[in-house]
Amino acid sequence: MGIARAFRGFPVRKRLHQIGEVQRLYSTFAEGAPGAGLLLIRVVVGIGLIVHAAVELRGSPDEPLVVYLFDVVIGLLFLVGIYTPIVGAVLAVMSVWRVFLHPHTPWTCILLATLGAGLALLGPGAWSIDARLFGRREIDLPDRKH
Prior knowledge:
The longest helix is centred in the N-terminal third of the chain and has 27 residues, at 32-58. Helix 3 runs antiparallel to helix 6 (107-122), helix 4 (65-80) runs antiparallel to helix 5 and helix 5 (84-101) runs antiparallel to helix 6. The model is unreliable at 1-24 (pLDDT under 50). This protein has helices spanning 3-6, 11-18, 32-58, 65-80, 84-101, 107-122, 129-134; strands at residues 19-22, 137-140. The protein is elongated, with a radius of gyration of 22 Å. The chain is mainly alpha-helical. It has a domain at 32-133.
């Protein structure tokens, strides 16, 4: 008698066959304190990018206008938490590019690249649009008829 046959009558075993979870982006969307930490990081990075773009545009910009517009769009996407892995990877690449473009002040760009890569790898957390769009789903499968 196999293990599957021995546990066939238990409701827990039946429930495991009937309910499956489908997640598209991440294995988990952090909740609780880790989720709050990811939200805090997203908000700080988003506001920082928007403020940086606004300050640079009020003065004499070093880069073309489209780069600062891109900063604002990335900042807004981080604030709401949508497409976080893509936006984080774009921020990391863009910040590494800026390190080579402005070698006299690399530390802010290195920090932003690290935060962007970290958010791309960890995910947005439970308090994001990504979690609502791509989060856990339950699928109820009907009983099999033999």
